[in-house]
Design brief:
9 helices, six-stranded parallel beta sheet, single chain, alpha/beta, globular, 2 domains, Rossmann fold, NAD(P)-bd_dom_sf, Dihydrodipicolinate Reductase, domain 2
Length: 331
């Protein structure tokens, strides 16, 4: 079987990592790259750097990875769909729900594989967590908390923290428990002098009643990526920076100190840090997309799912702007 002919448009910070992985996985050849801004990280590796997606399409592609700024996703993606080329588009799928819907419909209508690069789904800690939740190890799920904060990424210019970073948390939260958002209530802050928000605090509720809370910013000097799922039997803590998963069990030993016991719903129990395999999430993401094109059983983030995440992100921004709780409309 001939290797799939892959293209890559967007040769910036993310593009260089996509190129590295495309060259590393089996059954794939990176045959074309494009970026009108050039190749600052020497990604091309001897390939000509095309100036447009149209020029890259002419080289003959089976699929293409789109790692451009969000503002260009819709135009590039529609061009690829019209040319009959499968596409993995970096998150968020598009700058708004209208664009995301056009992309999802274009790829579905053409019978093409379209996916969105929500890479956190492929983090080993979250994949292991999802499996354990599906097995009922936590019992009833009460709450999901995420914190995603760190310094400002200079590469981001066209969206704020909600559509850049918070879409990770929106997607992973709905995915890890298998239920979409029902409502969101948010506050934002603008501290860096840019036109877009730098911080968001969101509370919400999923359709199964799970309460959610997300704190996301790029104003912090320390980097934090954590997901905490609390339920009937304790809490899972996923540190996605280090791909670690820890379980804090509810204790079975009663508290002897009466004055303290009356203030505590549960007591501390055993703490287990799981030993899990830690493959690189980006490689797993690419292998899953390759397998989808080849017709193998796999798990990708579909464009319909990417559209749902953009819809929640827009509801978050509406909530922050209008100072009210917003009911999320299913796209």
């Amino acid at each position: 079987m001939a290797a799939l002919r892959a293209g890559l448009i967007g040769l910036g910070m993310m593009g260089r990592h996509h190129a590295r992985v495309l060259r590393a996985i089996s059954d794939v050849d990176l045959v074309a790259v494009a970026d009108p801004a050039g190749d600052p990280h020497n990604v091309a590796g001897g390939l000509p750097v095309h100036q447009s997606v149209e020029a890259m399409i002419e080289t003959g592609l089976d699929y293409c990875v789109v790692a451009t700024p969000t503002a260009y996703h819709e135009e590039i993606g529609l061009t690829l769909a019209a040319a009959g080329i499968h596409a993995l588009i970096e998150k968020p799928l598009a700058k708004d729900t209208l664009g995301a819907r056009k992309l999802a419909e274009a790829f579905d209508g053409a019978g093409l594989i379209g996916a969105v690069g929500h890479i956190e789904r492929y983090n080993p800690a979250l994949q292991n967590l999802r499996s354990r939740l599906a097995e009922g190890e936590l019992g009833e799920i009460y709450q999901i908390i995420t914190r995603r904060q760190g310094p400002f990424p200079a590469r981001i210019a066209d969206v704020g923290v909600v559509k850049d970073l918070a879409t990770h948390d929106i997607d992973l939260t709905a995915w890890v428990v298998g239920h979409p958002y029902r409502t969101v209530s948010a506050h934002t802050a603008y501290k860096s002098g840019r036109a877009h928000e730098d911080l968001v605090a969101v509370t919400g509720k999923l359709t199964n009643g799970t309460v959610t809370s997300h704190l996301v910013n790029w104003l912090s000097p320390m980097k934090e990526r954590v997901t905490i799922v609390t339920g009937d039997r304790g809490a899972f803590v996923a540190d996605t920076l280090h791909a670690d998963l820890t379980f804090h069990a509810n204790g079975s030993t009663p508290t002897q100190w009466d004055d303290l016991a009356q203030f505590r719903g549960v007591s501390e129990g055993d703490v287990i840090r799981y030993a899990i395999a830690k493959p690189e999430p980006l490689r797993v993401e690419h292998e899953a997309f390759r397998d989808a094109i080849l017709g193998r059983s796999t798990d990708i983030v579909t464009m319909q799912q990417g559209l749902a995440t953009v819809a929640v992100a827009e509801a978050v921004l509406v909530s922050a702007s209008e100072g009210r709780t917003v009911t999320v409309t299913e796209p």
